[in-house]
Amino acid sequence: MPSMRRCWSVLVLNVGLAACTARAPPPVRPQTTVTAPAPSPPPAVISEPNAAPGVYSPPPRTKESACAVRGPLPDPACTPGAVMTTDLDVVCHRSTKERRRVSAEVHRLALTEYGFSYPQPLGAFEVDHLIPLELGGDNLIANLWPEAAEPAPGFHQKDRVENYLHRQVCAGAMNLADAQRQIATDWLKVWRQIDGQASATPAGADDGE
What we know:
This protein has about 210 residues and is mainly α. The protein contains 5 helices and 2 strands; from the N terminus they run αααββαα. It has a two-stranded antiparallel ribbon. Helix 4 crosses helix 5 (about 175-200).
């Protein structure tokens, strides 16, 4: 009889332990807080060391076909102009040859967007920079168009306008942004103002375009 009581006691104890074990809540793990990395600061804007005061920003290009010249002026939707530099040291003291990079494919595109075949007879057209390299213009298609030599005024006359504005800027008589704006919006207006002076000043070997 005592042995049977011990057996029942052990059985009751085991069942109680099992019940306690089954009802015991799982251990609580400590929560780890993940901190997101701080956002990187925006890149610094590097200004050109000798940048001219004021900036001319041509409007965006909104058309890539069916472009139409307006006499000696380009289609402003296709060729609004583009600026490469406003550094006066580059504009006034460095040759444009190191910045003149217009591929044959871009020449072809400049002509065909305006409905002209490629190539054209030598001297009939110049794929011209609306804002010339000597005034900080860029080689982008937004700054290029096929400018005819004839009838005058054509690209020969525009070359002289470019020379005049370049001299004005580098002599400190005109702001570079103003010169870029004038030649991009209506170089003919400048030509009419300086017709006699510009006609007497031939384009140099590094001028034009």
